[in-house]
Amino acid sequence: TSVITLNMSSIDEVKVGDKIPSVTMRELKSNMESPQEVNIAELIQEVNIAELIKGKKVAIFGVPGAFTPGCSKSHLPSFINAQKDLKEKGIEMTICVATNDAYVMGAWGSTSGGEEAGIAFLSDSEGKLTESFGLVMDTPVGIRTKRFSLIADDGTITHYFNTAGQKSDTWAPNVLASL
After folding, report:
1. Cα–Cα distance list, 120 to 54, 80, 132, 135, 164 (Å)
2. Is residue 165 a contact partner of residue 71, using CB atoms and an 8 Å limit?
3. What share of the chain is helix, strand, coil (3-state, %, to 5)?
4. What tens digit of pLDDT does each residue of 86-104 get?
5. Which of 12, 28, 56, 130 has the fewest CB atoms within 10 Å, measured from its CB?
6. Residue 89 region, left (φ>0) first, then alpha (ψ -120 to 50), else beta?
7. Residue 74 — pLDDT band, cuts 50, 70, 90?
């Protein structure tokens, strides 16, 4: 087994004007015809988030954990319900990130309706994006991502929302109101 070590000491929180870092994340491949016949490692696709969003205007939101109450009842549904409006405002892709593994993120995406709505669910299981954003939250169940939302255009953050005020500041209606 490997141990993940994060440097949580002096990383500033992400802000408008920052670039999305070149970080490898993981995504569960969907629509596998016969997943039981596939090598389990082949179900996971590595995705460089900077390359994925290059040349696009995207919404990215991070949550402490898939299937957790606040994330499942409020944050994720706000983005599921806002997909049409986000697209009308020029958002080409919406991405949900959490430090859960790719299997958990894939299951959450498929059972929540988020995947069907067009949201990509990326696993930051090593915490690299979370750490680079200065949003590491150490909890009794491990490293989690502090709740956030942002808009990036061609990899540059143009809008950023955190929970300094209240959790709902990171939900889609607040994001839409700023566009």
Report:
1. 15, 11, 20, 20, 26
2. no
3. 30, 25, 40
4. 999 999 999 999 999 998 9
5. 12
6. alpha
7. confident
What's phi and psi for 156, nearest 5 deg? -105, 130
Which tokens in the block code for residue 18?
A: 């920052």
Q: How far apart are CA 128 and CA 6, in angstroms?
A: 8
Catalytic pick among 25, 60, 71, 96: 71
Three-class DSSP category at 130: helix
Compute CA distances 134 → 84, 89, 99, 140, 148, whole Å.
Answer: 30, 28, 14, 19, 11
Query: 168 and 64 in contact (C-beta within 8 Å)?
Result: no
pLDDT band at 142 (very low <50, low <70, confident <90, very high): confident
Contact residues for 114 (Cβ-Cβ < 8 A; gap 6+)? 76, 79, 80, 96, 108, 121
Asked if residue 11 lies in contact with residue 127, where contact means CB atoms within 8 angstroms, the answer is no
Q: Is 71 a catalytic residue?
A: yes
Place 37 in a pLDDT band, splitting at 50, 70 and 90.
low
pLDDT at 25 (0 to 100): 95
Query: How do 93-98 and 119-123 pair as beta strands?
Result: parallel
How high is the pLDDT of residue 173?
A: 86
Give the H/E segment covering residue 50: helix 49-53
